[in-house]
Design brief:
about 300 residues; alpha+beta; FdhE-like fold; eight-stranded mixed sheet; 9 helices
Amino acid sequence: MPTRIITDGSTERVVPAPRVVLPAAATLFAERAARFAQLSQGHPFGAYLQLMARVAQAQHEACAARPALPTSASLLAASREYGMPPLAALSHERAALWREDLAAIVQSLRPRASAELAAALQTLAGADASELEALADRVLAGNATDADAPLVPLVGAALQVYFTRQAAALPVDDVSRCDVATVCPVCGTRPVASVVRLGGAQANLRYLVCALCSTEWNMVRAKCSVCEAEKSVGYLSIEQEGRSLADVPIRAETCDECHSYLKIFYQEKDPLLEPMADDLASLALDLLVDERGYARSGPNLLLHPGSS
């Protein structure tokens, strides 16, 4: 059969893969809650994952209850012209809206709360605005103390709601020129993990996933997401029953240049993977990689890792 020659310009109609994908705030947290619930079944930390499912459901309800606030035109212009994240987490002037999100999450979690959780909820409910803002600053800067540990996942959850809602409302063209490939183009936060996507224009491409606002941005595979080295990248994984190591959907991408690591998820091997949920469900991999001398490069704001 002769080879068909395309002459109608149809190749020009191929949709290019997006460099930046903003979060779908209306569904993201509900899908995360469902994944947490699924992962909890038969898991050694099933009770913890069930609690995280409740947290994610509370995030979904809080996100839907309040609208995004407008982002200033000057910040968007700077993002377009200079590649600056318009909602830079460490310098962004947070509106009080995030504290309303936190209050809603606290109220949602009160029923069936354990004694430890109830104490954390009461602490947050009794804190004043300045205390909450200082705690949020510590969470975002990654220097929360061990004394903050019970509060970190709850404050992190509220901050995720606030920044995800704000990110989802941005024009994607205004945030697609960030020159720093290793941080989120919207809020400047490190990624929680990376995902090799399945299907459509994103098929087989790696996207880093922001730990704060869930924005995704494309970065070539086999390249360190911290120092961008290529030749020193390797992979570690834990064998799963019924799967070969080559077929495991979660790996730790390590770098011998900067001695960091970040998990990478392969949707082709598990289409239901959700970065935030699957990251917490695979903490055994973190322990393995930590024992090999690699330091985790990106946070999960639903967990306080403790001091080393």
